[in-house]
Design brief:
Layout: H1 10-14, H2 32-41, E1 49-52, H3 59-66, E2 71-75, E3 90-91, E4 104-109, H4 121-128, H5 131-136, H6 144-153, E5 155-166, H7 176-185, E6 186-193, E7 207-214, E8 221-227, H8 235-242, E9 250-256, H9 269-281, H10 302-305, E10 306-310, H11 317-320, H12 329-332, E11 335-339, E12 353-356, H13 364-370, H14 372-379, H15 382-385, H16 406-409, E13 415-419, E14 421-423, E15 433-435, E16 440-441, E17 445-450, H17 458-465, H18 468-477, E18 479-481, E19 484-486, H19 489-493, H20 505-524, H21 527-541
Parallel strand pairs: 1-2, 1-4, 2-3, 4-5, 6-8, 11-16
Antiparallel strand pairs: 5-7, 6-7, 8-9, 10-17, 11-12, 13-15, 13-17, 14-19, 18-19
Helix pairs in contact: 2-3, 2-8, 6-7, 13-14, 17-20, 20-21
């Protein structure tokens, strides 16, 4: 273990392995081996001007000093983090507001990432008067965005930005301004994607390390390294990745530079072509070719043909779930038949769970008199039920707290259920399941209903959603955090959909066959039927090239 001049170890001073708590300014302290890996990505000399915009406990400064870089500069808002040995280097002020009249050859580090709603009041006030923030961002943006953008502003021509960040800003709508700014001012040289590899303790978000070059001259390709292991990184693994050495769990890809007004996909050009091919097959007849994932894509989506709703929220499921209790006939009338996420399979569900539902009851005495068994069960949970989040209302303990989309769920329409979140580490399918009327979703399930003017059968829609093309599209273009895919209204609504040309007899026949086979599969679970359904979709969508 390496000792510094103040006799404490670097690992004791810096490592988040020993210190897992996050401070109030959104910092997750960078492990030493990761910081060293990032420093080694830089192409600089001993006299290069180097800045760390949020230095935390100083691990990058420590490593740069050890490697005998001379011109170091840093900012850190939290004075309690600044090591004594770097007091002369680190300015105890906010990088966001600092007036900087210098340009740098390298800016490196781990910017703080905090959602606007979680920002300290002082930071919100700071951003409210910051011209860069007001020009490029808004309250839907992450605090880290201003660190990335301002860092680029203060790079020299051909200067390097090397940051470690979560992956999510590569494909969210509210980060598009930042992404466009970056492409207008330079290009990516390297990106390392660590998916769910544990880097920060108690943090499961997918992490990237990127090297960005500020330059008027752009390169057509960037080097993408994808690492899939869920084991902790070692120095030897990181060295192998930097050298592009063939190793287990690693994939090395050269991909085209990203484009403006698009989500940035960390995947091969071939897969991007497949996604574009799929989208084009889902375009309205006569639609012109568009750029992959641009805001101008005119493909039909699930949101065009379906209504989508997230499930009801009880606030304390175990209080409302029934498990074979003896009930009166009156009590049996006040139940919801619920499908839980754990009981969903592709195309079908396995079990129904009964829930107490008394939101029509206004007085506790009526609950006591008419529903004695329900009262006894719910009263035993009263303390916990009264501590539920109340959505700015006063909600009696026997009622569910949030009946979102209840009217939609009470309709006489058949529906499709899918888990709100799906882990895909070890599977290549999602669980879109058919559910009859009078079955309800709770908060772990999202429901899909075909719109009145949609001619396609719900069984056709069901088979389409379970098709491997949709799985692949969502894997690369959905809301994916690590190995978790989210199925809220927006990502489901964005899925491309292949409508039927109702003037085309052949397409109508294919549609009807898919419906027939899908209904039969739900009853028989025959794998041969799935093969026939896939063949029919191949005729409609075309075999992906």
């Amino acid at each position: 273990m390496i000792e510094n001049k103040n006799t404490y170890t670097i690992t004791e001073e810096i490592s988040i392995v020993a210190e897992t708590s996050k401070n109030r300014y959104g910092q997750y302290f960078t492990p030493e081996i990761i910081a060293n890996f990032m420093v080694n990505l830089a192409n600089i000399n001993s006299n290069s001007d180097i800045l760390e915009s949020s230095s935390g406990k100083g691990i990058f400064l420590e490593l740069l000093t050890r490697k005998e870089y001379n011109n170091l500069y840093a900012y850190e808002l939290d004075i309690t983090l600044i090591p004594n040995k770097f007091k002369e280097i680190v300015k105890n002020e906010s990088f966001v507001s600092a007036k900087i009249d210098k340009k740098f050859d390298l800016i490196i580090g781990n910017p703080p990432y905090i959602r606007w709603k979680n920002l300290e009041t002082e930071l919100k006030q700071e951003l409210a008067t910051n011209h860069l923030w007001n020009k490029h961002f808004n309250s839907l943006c992450d605090y880290s965005y201003i660190f990335i953008l301002k860092s680029i502003e203060h790079l020299k021509e051909n200067g390097e930005l090397i940051f470690i960040t979560p992956e999510y800003w590569l494909n969210t709508t509210h980060s598009q301004t930042l992404r466009n700014y970056m492409l207008q001012n330079g290009y990516f040289e390297e990106i390392y994607h660590f998916n769910e590899t544990p880097i920060f303790d108690n943090v499961t978000v997918s992490i990237i390390i990127f090297k960005f070059i500020k330059s008027k001259n752009k390169k057509p390709f960037l080097s993408l390294t994808k690492y899939y292991s869920n084991k902790k990184l070692t120095s030897s693994i990181l060295q192998d990745l930097q050298k592009k050495k063939e190793t287990e769990f690693a994939e090395y890809i050269e991909i085209s530079q990203f484009k403006e007004n698009e989500n940035w996909l960390l995947t091969s050009n071939d897969i991007k072509k497949e996604m574009l091919y799929f989208e084009n097959k889902c375009k309205v007849n006569g639609g012109s070719e568009q750029t992959l994932f641009s805001t101008e894509v005119k493909h039909v989506t699930i949101g065009d043909i379906c209504d989508i709703g997230n499930g009801l929220v009880s606030g304390l499921d175990k209080a409302f779930q029934l498990n074979g209790e003896v009930l009166t006939e009156k009590e049996k009338e006040y139940q919801l038949n619920v499908i839980k996420a754990k009981d969903l399979k592709p195309f079908y569900y396995e079990n129904i769970t009964n829930y107490i539902y008394l939101n029509e009851i206004e007085e506790e005495q009526e609950l006591i008199n008419k529903f004695p068994n329900y009262y006894n069960k719910l009263f035993s949970f009263k303390d916990k039920l009264e501590k539920r989040y109340q959505y700015n209302k006063q909600i009696p303990y026997w009622k569910w707290v949030f009946l979102r989309n209840l009217n939609l769920f009470k309709s006489e329409k058949e529906r499709i259920f899918v888990p709100c979140k799906e882990r895909i580490s070890n599977k290549n399918y999602f669980r879109f399941a058919f559910a009859r009327t009078n079955l309800f979703p709770t908060q772990d399930v999202t429901a899909i209903f075909k719109k009145v003017n949609t001619k396609e059968s719900i069984f056709y829609i069901l088979s389409f959603l379970n098709n491997y093309r949709v799985f692949q599209w969502l894997l690369h273009n959905g809301i994916v955090k690590g190995n978790i895919v989210e199925f809220s209204e927006r990502p489901i609504a964005s899925i491309p959909f292949r409508k039927i040309d109702w003037n085309n007899k052949n397409e109508i026949e294919i549609h009807d066959k898919i419906v027939e086979y899908t209904k039969e599969y739900i009853q028989t679970k025959s794998d041969e039927l799935l093969k026939q359904i896939d063949k029919l979709f191949n005729k409609l969508v075309g075999i992906i090239i």
